[in-house]
Amino acid sequence: MEPSEFKSQSDPSDNSNAMVLWKFDNPYANYKKDAERIFVLDGYTLRISQKLTEKIDITKNTGNIVWDGAYMLSKYLVNHVEGRGRKKLRFLELGSGCGLVGLAAWIKGGYVVCTGTKTDIEHTRTNVEKNVELVLSQQQQRMELEVIEMEKARRARNARELLKEDIDVRVLDWRKLPTMDLITDPMHLNNSKTFDIILASELLYLPELHRDLVKTMMYYCHGKKSEVYDTNETRVLGIYKQRGLGEDAFFEIARVLGKFEIEWIDTSYWTNLHPILETYDDQLNHSHEGDNPPFKAYEICKENTLYEKMYGSVCQTLEKELSWVGCYHLQLLLK
């Protein structure tokens, strides 16, 4: 909604009586179709550019805009995902799009690789580079203004200084993973290594890519000899909205082909959806089964103490933090 104004009838050139429609913090204002969207994550302001001039459909340009799931996964990351000790969590984001989720993981102090195809990776790179500089500037201002308090807080919560070199943007095609002879490819395992957490936001709308997506997740999972946190587990944390596009088929492939374990958290059915969350869905031609599609989530096995340290009590926090999301699903796969 753009600011509108009307002029005094006595003087058409006089803007002194102009009226700007209320937008800041207005719950009824829709920011989803702005060329630049502003998000605040962990106290840092991000400015995410969207490419609105190109037509978006199920097969192209889906990474041009910030989907609702990306915001929800970003919020979950900054609120509930913590590292352990002085070791950095290694994040791989698949299908980064506008880069919001990868930036959220970086803000939490992780090492992050954002990925996408050759056709959309420059949009990701532009957003990441712009916002890394923006966040580093804000970090510097914090340190200059509150250096003593910041240092005390940093030691207290074992926080890390954010570094530019801890986030990267690379091309990755799920259908053409680097082979043994492509050792110069930055995403070859010899170069990229494996990852602690793989992020997957709004990626399940093309069933023909589910098998390739699972293979990609398997490729970057820790092997049995991994020494990260003394565990062999890589976690895939993702989110998707049930649009009737065959999303559920992904999980059967993940179980059978990927040998992944999937554990769901039972949640109630959400009825009063936030009205703004329905933006863009018409461009994917989705449909729902029933009037109240469920919000479903899952967690790792409760006896895993590493999970409790990293994620806290998901059962208690999800309902409190995400109760208005509607039919989103959170997924956590274990390798």
UniProtKB/TrEMBL annotation:
SUPFAM superfamilies: S-adenosyl-L-methionine-dependent methyltransferases (SSF53335). This is 16203_t:CDS:1. It comes from Acaulospora morrowiae. PANTHER family: HEPATOCELLULAR CARCINOMA-ASSOCIATED ANTIGEN, RIBOSOMAL LYSINE N-METHYLTRANSFERASE 5. Signal peptide: none annotated. Gene3D superfamilies: Vaccinia Virus protein VP39. InterPro entries: Methyltransf_16, SAM-dependent_MTases_sf.
